[in-house]
Amino acid sequence: MTNNPSTLYRGGVLYCPSEPSATALLVRDGRIAWVGADGDAPAADRVVELAGALVTPAFVDAHVHVSDTGLVLSGLDLSRVRSAGELLDAVAGFAAGLPVDAVVLGHGWDESTWPVPRPPSAVELGRAAGGRRVYLSQASIHSAVVSSALLAACPEAVAAPGYDESGWLRRDAHHVVRAVAREAVTREQRVAAQRVALGRAASLGIAAVHECGGPEISDEEDFTGLLALSGVGVPEVYGYWGELGGAARARELGAVGAGGDLFADGALGSRTAHVSQAYVDGAGCGHGYLSAEQVRDHLLDCAAHGMQGGFHAIGDAAISTVLAGFAAAAETLGTDRVRSARHRVEHAEIMDRRLIAGFVEFGVVASMQPAFDRLWGGAGRMYETRLGLARSLASNPMGSMHAVGVALAFGSDSPVTPLDPWGSVRAAAAHHNPVQRMSVRAAFAAHTRGGWRAVGLDSEGVLALGAPATFAVWSTPAGVQGGLPVLQASDPEARGAEDPTPLPVCRATVLRGEVIYEEGSSWLR
């Protein structure tokens, strides 16, 4: 028998489909020891009055970049600038408080929302920053504008694919300058940024995140340092290391999978996603970074080391290549073995019936971001500009994928889009294309149980007897219906990045019985 204190949470509204009338739960030793009605509650060492608050399983964000998220939250956030001039003003104001040898790091500008969709030049950035080195990643993180001083510090970028003398860099040239810019961030600054990001996640009812790292995204020290923070008063971190043929190294680093942002292509925002039909607003079909043979060999490497694999693939041409690699791997391993590994594809935005069928055949987990459609889908948005309206409305087909049994795990890709789990649930339920809308219940499951299942923890993400006591407590300004919040969504065509309709507010987040966030200083004390 254990002598650990128990805690009874009572007087709430519990999202517990197996016990729909439940209003209370008992936590002991990090697990749910009892769930039911207040009047039937057993004795406990401690009682927390929920005062009618909603209790649900906590969220999992299935695709994040924690250090970058923290740097944006504590640094230069450019998501609200609406012109090149506003961007330059923001850079000038931020740089004024930095040493002359500092690197100005910023993120989030999105030229597709500007009247003139063109960022400032390298020369203009340098002038605004007082000659300092400047690195500003576009919202997709697949391109950046940099200052003349940073270009001068990266002479090898000139010969790399994706270089442009204007300072707007893509592909390999972008990776070169990104690496140099990141070197300016000290270890102490990274740890601080990681704690900021994980703290924000906990305050939003997120109890676990999937970190998508790799040699082109972060570095090994950043990755292992983040994993060392996992679950210690902050959400748990499940790491994916995106290095081709790197299953053994991923295991050594403590990753749960050799995937995440292992790039099969780029992004729609930078026109580097590999699509089968040319971009409407630019020449070409983007870029495919992997062959089907490389995908096959990576999956065979993952099988040899008992690791989950995965790929970043956005465009239909890239996804087709990835699935061809899956088929080739299945010729060696057998389809059942491929399916049992639950390999992942991150983003999976441009899909058709054939590609969706491939996900079903090979048991691929689709790690998707509903906020992509909310921000860039529909008429008059970036996806229409890049793809045309028909392809725009067909993008992010999470409703069709859910309908045929594709396993979905929702996330934010933060800092590409903000940590915002209820906003993502609402975005999935209010997709710009009505055919692709999901029920709130299904979208919530994808953002909770879906994230746990994607890392092989099938028993998590529910309020049930014996399950881990991982949950969040919410105030629900719009009320509760069917055990979940009423998510009022305005006309998606009229919606912008700032949606004024009310979302639930997190009052507390509990991870395996430990309170990792509470509103104020003593709400659960």
Automatic annotation (TrEMBL):
It comes from the Bacteria. Pfam families: Amidohydro_3 (PF07969). Residues 46-517 form the Amidohydrolase domain. Transmembrane segments: none annotated. Gene3D superfamilies: 3.10.310.70, Metal-dependent hydrolases, Urease, subunit C, domain 1. Coiled coil: none annotated. This is Amidohydrolase. SUPFAM superfamilies: Composite domain of metallo-dependent hydrolases (SSF51338), Metallo-dependent hydrolases (SSF51556). InterPro entries: Amidohydro_3, Metal-dep_hydrolase_composite, Metal_Hydrolase. GO terms for molecular function: hydrolase activity, acting on carbon-nitrogen (but not peptide) bonds. Signal peptide: none annotated.
